[in-house]
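Build the 3D complex.
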Amino acid sequence: GAVVSQHPSWVICKSGTSVKIECRSLDFQATTMFWYRQFPKQSLMLMATSNEGSKATYEQGVEKDKFLINHASLTLSTLTVTSAHPEDSSFYICSAILAGGPDTQYFGPGTRLTVL
Amino acid sequence: GENVEQHPSTLSVQEGDSAVIKCTYSDSASNYFPWYKQELGKRPQLIIDIRSNVGEKKDQRIAVTLNKTAKHFSLHITETQPEDSAVYFCAANLRAGSYQLTFGKGTKLSVIP
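Done.
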């Protein structure tokens, strides 16, 4: 149980284009999901907290207009990287917490974004 | 905000030996401390966690200890195996009841056959 999926697993795009990444909880409902960014050989950096039906809370230094987050249902959150640039290339990982459950975060498999 | 320091950054052990990774946290209000294992290019997987109402927790070859007074917690892996080789991250929640985690910088563990 507690499986989280992400789509796509990898994406290559041109500079200036937008990319949407989906995060789904497959066998549970998640009122809260998190989006992380991980650069090579570095730790996970929390970008934002996504709550179903409300606006996301962004961490300091993360541009909310550049990283659009939508959490329209209890099983789906999306991250859209708008006007992507090479410095946005990274590994984006989401996690989810069971609605009404303990605070254990279950992670998705990640999305490797490469911006040319 | 919460700050989590993790040491060492790299650790090599012989197969069968024990490995210990240590973390310290800054916010005394934190009460949840998970450990994740991440293999190259894959998702972090929870291997064990501990809450501030206990001082130690064990699951087969893996144990975690927590010293609330000193604000540090440690991961202990006994009888290491080559498949234990990975990057291990400790984390702490921002404050009691918060779901948000701050991660340590990670420890790359190599188990030499």
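Chain A has a mean pLDDT of 92.
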